């Protein structure tokens, strides 16, 4: 009730202030800076009362503030004096109005902050059915969607992330929820917690990110994976390793079944990631064989959707951002190389199904609908509705020429296949990027408001 009352007061305040800008004679009034009450007593015509919150924020007080009454002639009247209606006067007035709007916005934001947070309505699971689940890299693109899914199912989630490529914003809607915990931790260091299941997703996933610090990428995928497998062994948890289609390298078998051993350059620029993931798989099966750890391995193919990084250099995000800004859409190479993209919700369904299954060998999770990069460029341009040119840039070293998963295993053992059509997924993703680009300062929701939050 208190919060609602406070919110009501803020609204009344807004209306009062706006009303104070007009007067019965049709002249405009401007509210100036507050002055001391004693001084104002001596100049009653310069002052007026406003209703404001008291220092505790519990009630309202009447406060006398200085009012600078500047008269501007009603429309159609002649300007009377040097100051009245002058250009400087208008600029001053606009500036003051902007300051007041900013102050009001801050006040409303502060009051909103006092309203108890509302969370999505999660399913209630009793103690027997509720699992405690760890997601490493849960503040990243895929991880945050998996968090949403498992939270809605009613499980307890612990997200561990070092925020290298992940963002708190991706999971902020769960912060404070009784089933959710976010731990800032680098999985290269051991972690001691009690969990039933581990989705091990922590690793940079896009080429610019994993090439930024190749040694760290290798450490995350090797030492980090050892730490997670060690944790799974200690607490008896089931662990799912997020591997990648990159373990197939630049494949000479097409489409790629899980039985294909791959064609990877071990010293190329992508090797830190490709080989890192291959070792992660090897580690998983070594722990399974030697330590009886219950492992699952998902070989994830290209995935797209909201919360992808704006500048992760991957095809979908690159093309969408270029198209939204009416810039040329740039393809590396001829554009004849193929990719297949799955929407993120399909991947999340696949990961959950794999974890729940009894199948322990690697499983491809991807969309088998294959398209050339050039086709993607055209589809994205049409979906955005722009007139961007499509241009070719020099090909990238070790860029795979063909990528298409054979998903027979996933169909057979998980009863899984992608369901979201490309156009549908693209519309949601384009919408997401449109909003991201519209954010003026990248943190629209987090305006720093020290003066109003401090108690006076
Ligand atoms: N998105 C795809 O198309 C794709 C394709 C194949 C495989 N994968 C795999 O899926 C997983 C998730 O990928 P994503 O697209 O969400 O990437 P992402 O970069 O958005 O998320 C990775 C997360 O891991 C975190 N992280 C990285 N190193 C860490 C460390 N040392 N300790 C703790 N946290 C760390 C990052 O901060 C980030 O939140 C990755 O393992 C990736 O290899 C993704």
TrEMBL record:
InterPro entries in alphabetical order: NAD(P)-bd_dom, NAD(P)-bd_dom_sf, UXS-like
Subcellular location: Golgi apparatus, Golgi stack membrane
Domain NAD(P)-binding: 134-427
A GO cellular component entry from the record: Golgi cisterna membrane
Top-level enzyme category: lyase
Coiled coil: 87-114
Membrane topology of this protein: Single-pass type II membrane protein
Pfam families: GDP_Man_Dehyd (PF16363)
Needed co-factor(s): NAD(+)
Claim: Acyltransferase is one of the keywords in the record: no
Keyword match Transmembrane: yes
Cleavable signal peptide: 1-22
Gene3D superfamilies registered for this protein in UniProt: NAD(P)-binding Rossmann-like Domain
Entries under PANTHER family matching the protein: UDP-GLUCURONIC ACID DECARBOXYLASE 1 (PTHR43078:SF6), UDP-GLUCURONIC ACID DECARBOXYLASE-RELATED (PTHR43078)
Protein name: UDP-glucuronic acid decarboxylase 1
Organism: Culex pipiens pipiens
């Amino acid at each position: 009730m208190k919060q609602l009352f406070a919110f009501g007061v803020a609204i009344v305040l807004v209306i009062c202030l706006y009303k104070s800008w007009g007067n019965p004679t049709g002249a405009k009034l401007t509210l100036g800076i507050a002055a001391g009450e004693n001084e104002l007593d001596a100049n009653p015509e310069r002052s007026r009362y406003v209703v404001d919150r008291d220092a505790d924020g519990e009630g309202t007080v009447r406060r006398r503030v200085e009012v600078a009454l500047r008269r501007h002639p009603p429309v159609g009247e002649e300007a009377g004096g040097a100051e009245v209606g002058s250009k400087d006067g208008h600029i001053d007035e606009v500036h003051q109005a902007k300051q007041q709007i900013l102050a009001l916005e801050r006040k409303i934001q502060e009051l909103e902050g006092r309203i108890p947070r509302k969370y999505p309505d999660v399913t209630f699971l009793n103690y027997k059915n509720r699992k405690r689940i760890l997601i490493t890299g849960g503040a990243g693109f895929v991880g945050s969607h998996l968090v949403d899914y498992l939270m809605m199912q009613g499980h307890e989630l612990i997200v561990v992330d070092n925020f290298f490529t992940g963002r708190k914003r991706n999971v902020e809607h769960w912060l404070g929820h009784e089933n959710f915990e976010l731990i800032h931790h680098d999985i290269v260091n051991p972690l001691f917690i009690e969990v039933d299941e581990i989705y091990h997703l922590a690793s940079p996933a896009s080429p610019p990110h994993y090439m930024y610090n190749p040694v760290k990428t290798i450490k995350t995928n090797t030492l980090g994976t050892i730490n997670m497998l060690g944790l799974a062994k200690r607490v008896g948890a089931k662990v799912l390793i997020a591997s990648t289609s990159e373990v197939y390298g630049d494949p000479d078998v097409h489409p790629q079944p899980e039985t294909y051993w791959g064609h990877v350059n071990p010293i190329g620029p992508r090797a830190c990631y490709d080989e890192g993931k291959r070792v992660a798989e090897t580690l998983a099966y070594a722990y399974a064989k030697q330590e009886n750890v219950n492992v699952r391995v998902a070989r994830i193919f290209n995935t797209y959707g909201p919360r992808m990084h704006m500048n992760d250099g991957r095809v979908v995000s690159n093309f969408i951002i270029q198209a939204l800004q009416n810039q040329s859409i740039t393809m590396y190479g001829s554009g004849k190389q193929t990719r297949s993209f799955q929407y993120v919700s399909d991947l999340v369904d696949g990961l959950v199904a794999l974890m729940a299954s009894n199948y322990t060998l690697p499983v491809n999770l991807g969309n088998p609908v294959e398209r050339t990069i050039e086709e993607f460029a055209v589809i994205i341009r049409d979906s955005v509705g722009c007139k961007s040119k499509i241009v070719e840039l020099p090909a990238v070293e070790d860029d795979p020429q063909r990528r298409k998963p054979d998903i027979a295993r996933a169909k057979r053992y998980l009863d899984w296949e992608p369901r979201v059509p490309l156009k549908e997924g693209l519309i949601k993703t384009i919408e997401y990027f449109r909003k991201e680009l519209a954010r003026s300062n990248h943190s629209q929701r987090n305006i720093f408001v020290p003066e109003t939050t401090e108690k006076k």
